[in-house]
Amino acid sequence: xxxLEYRRLIKVLEQVAGAREGELYPVLxxxxxxxxxxxxxxxxxxxxxxxxxxxxEEQYLTMFRPDFVEEYVERWRWNNPFASRxxxxxxxxxxxxxxxxxxxxxxETERDFADTFLRRNGIDDMLKIVVRSPATGxxxxxxxxxxxxxxxxxxxxLLMAATLGPLLSPYFDANLLPASVLTSGERDVxxxxxxxxxxxxxxxxxxxxxxxxxxxxxxxLEKTGxxxxxxxxxQWERRPMS
Length: 242
Fold this sequence. Notes:
Strand content: 5-15%
Mean pLDDT: 85
Structural class: alpha+beta
Number of strands: 5
Oligomer: single chain
Distance between the termini: 42 Å
Strand order of the largest sheet: 2-1-5-4-3
């Protein structure tokens, strides 16, 4: 790697190191855009196809439109080349992969992910980087979309990505999200709780176990600082919590 590229990586790490707790993602997204030219980079925490043993909920930190994320989760999450056997092998062994290289051996559904879904949203290729917490082993990925009309993935981008992933790992020990932010699953449970539904009813409505509902409720109370469900309901009615 050339000296100039190292300097760019150092600039990224300097910005990330200065991020306040709960503000890592916006700082990281800005840093890689300014210093590496990686625009619209996003983070997936506990990606389902790489974190199969994790009990954490898959979450996305992104500047993409909510409908983009919703369609990905509902239709494409398990049907994209990064979730294929080749994709998982490549990401697990090398820590980096590109959509272009995985597409060569992709199934028809996986190619549709690239040719239909991503291209419709202005994405021609994507760089995916694994970031693994050295303390907890938790897995996150940093995804970088590329618009072919503006820029293609270069060999220097791959080298930069392979180097950056391990360097970012120590900063991913802390939660990327502020502690007060509820996950989508927690929000679903909270919204049903404040309507007066019991644990069993909530579990059936959300198609989860009662123990999962109870775990979500414990986290909800911790994050919101509420001492009881009555207090949670009162606060939620005044202003639904983010």
